[in-house]
Amino acid sequence: MPGGLLFNSVEYAAFLAIFLALYWAVLGPRGAIGSALKRDLRPHLLLVGSYVFYASFTWWFPAILAGITVVQYTLGAQLAKTRSRERRKVLLTLGVLATIGTLVVFKYFDFFVGAVADGLGRVGLEANPATLGLLVPWGVSFYTLHALSYTIDVYRRDAEATTDVLSFAVFVAYFPQLLAGPLTRIRPMLPQFQHLPRRLDPIRRAEGFELILLGLFQKVAVADALTPLTRTVFVDQTVGPEPAQNPVLLVIGAFAGAAQFVLDFAGYTNIARGTSKLLGIELPYNFREPLTRSRNLQDYWRRHNITLMGWFRDYVYRPLRRRSSSTVRSSLLLVFIFFLSGLWHGANWGWVLWGIVTGVAVQTEILVNRARDRSRRREGRPARRRRSPAMRVLGPLYASGVLAATIVLVRAPTIAAALEYYQAILRPTWVPLDWDLVLLAGYALVAICVADWREHRMELAEGKADPPTIPRMALWGAMVVLIIIYSGTAAQPFVYFQF
After folding, report:
1. What integer pLDDT is reported at residue 383 of this predicted model?
2. Torsion region of 386: left, alpha or beta (phi above 0 gives left; psi -120 to 50 gives alpha)
3. Domains in the chain: how many in total?
4. pLDDT at 488
5. In whole numbers, what is the pLDDT of the chain averaged over residues?
6. Which residues contact 249 (CB under 8 A, 6 or more apart)?
7. pLDDT above 50: residue 238
8. Are residues 391 and 490 located together in one domain of the fold?
9. SS3 at position 463
């Protein structure tokens, strides 16, 4: 696995410090060189810095990024010149094929070939297909969708094609969001890159630093800290006739696996948004405390990876749903969207099954809620009741429980191992409970609640003066100490970088 400027590494901290110094003190309109030349050179710095950042992982990664950028920019320019409906459809198709083709070659080719060979083998036909064995460029699933959204928006006339090559290239390659989002759209982002602020607002600066601290805490002191527990239940465990771990620990481990999955990505997002704020550029929210504030499973997916689910909603679900609004079609479409989300996450059967099961669970909840609301209306009662204090606990617990149950499909090495995991939970055999791991899970639960509470408070105060208080500074100090304790000898990659 490639190294590089991981957000949770000392190398990235040094890179960011140098970058900020160049950005504000040297190349900006008030910087030493920028003021002398009477030019704002920061867009050039953003582009060069983003490509240097990406090249730090593997030297040839930027070539893929540059190719995607050139293709989508060119197609957008051609769409702007073309009035013929048929020609516009051809150009859009080329854009989709170029993007999906890149993903297929690097990420899905070997999986599809292997699946076909396996299917042929099951009917008695032997096949020895050739595989590519290519290294998947980190973040390719994100920036391909990111760039494709521009071409689709221009095709729909939801956005105008830009002639600003530099700003468009920065839009695609912008390093805080390059590897794992948030996915953005051209309309809100392009003006920010074209009109960078002359000075950094103190409120935005404070928000940026706290978001970075919060993100590091979520990643290092929670997600990484849970590794001993998740490794024990998902890797070290030998599932057989006699379970290697206590069934209670397996249940706790499933919740820990779900929390690790969420906090790793939420931590990345907060560091990305915090870094971007320090550059005077706003990125959209991608997480809104899904583990502690979700009312149900639907609400969970409105709070988790918001921009990716929004991408599938706007560019896949709604266009397909316009052709028919029947309940059956809508239900199948929703399951299909989650199937695509699963396949997007990983080219293996575990992720495919995860997507289908999650989609069925969400759609089932939707249908049950609709039936309940109709029944209430017939009885003259309000369709929706106020959220009780009990539901403030049970809602997140239910949503997290579904995620924990399904995350086993992708955290276990194979689907067969996942099924054995479920069976081991239900076996009556009892083995001693590892209380150190239970205490670790308890610590993580408290840490998640505190982090989500603080993040919610930050959302409420965003853009407003929010002077630090003694309790808050004590919380910052505790976060720093815990980050240091759980840092380890080497920075651990973010889970979503592999996507």
Report:
1. 61
2. beta
3. 2
4. 77
5. 89
6. 232, 233, 433, 434, 437, 438
7. no
8. yes
9. coil
Are 66 and 194 in a shared domain?
Answer: yes
Read off the tokens for 465: 């003066």
pTM, two decimal places:
0.93
One domain, residues 413 and 339: yes
Q: What pLDDT, on a 0 to 100 scale, did the predictor assign at position 365?
A: 94
Q: What amino acid positions are annotated as catalytic residues?
A: 345
Report whether 456 contacts 292 (CB < 8 A).
Answer: no
CA 432 centroid distance within chain: 37
pLDDT at 11: 93
**Sign, CA torsion 2/480/304/50:** negative
Residue that terminates a domain, selected from 178, 199, 220: 199
In a 10 Å sphere around its CB, with 0-12 CB exposed, 13-18 middle and 19+ buried, how is residue 379 labelled?
Answer: exposed
The Cα–Cα gap between 485 and 414 comes to 33
pLDDT value, residue 386: 65
Same domain flag for 402 and 419: yes
Q: Could you tell me if residue 355 is inside a domain?
A: yes
The number of beta carbons lying within 10 Å of the beta carbon of residue 174 is 25
Based on the domain organization, do 32 and 167 belong to the same domain?
A: yes
Counting every residue written for the chain, the total comes to 499
Residue 55 · residue 134 · CB < 8 Å: no
Least confident of 151-155, 187-191, 380-384: 380-384
Decide if 312 is inside a domain. Answer: yes
Instruction: For residue 5, tell me if it sits in a domain.
Output: no
More confident position, 213 or 107: 213
Task: Judge whether residue 28 has pLDDT over 60.
Answer: yes
Kindly state whether residues 252 and 171 are assigned to the same domain.
no
Domain check: are 190 and 228 in the same one? no
Expressed as residue numbers, the domain containing 180 is 10-199
Q: 107: which residues sit within 8 A by CB, 6+ positions away? A: 136, 140, 141, 347
Alpha helices in 6-108 (DSSP H): 10-21, 32-37, 42-55, 61-81, 85-103
Instruction: Please name which of 405, 212, 392, 399 lies closest in space to residue 290, comparing C-alpha atoms.
Output: 399
User: What would you report as the CA-atom Rg of the chain, rounded to the nearest whole angstrom?
Assistant: 24
By mean pLDDT, which of 179-183, 319-323, 460-464 is the weakest?
319-323
Measured N-to-C along each axis, helices 61-81 and 42-55 cross at an angle, to the nearest 10 degrees, of: 130
The DSSP call for residue 287 is -
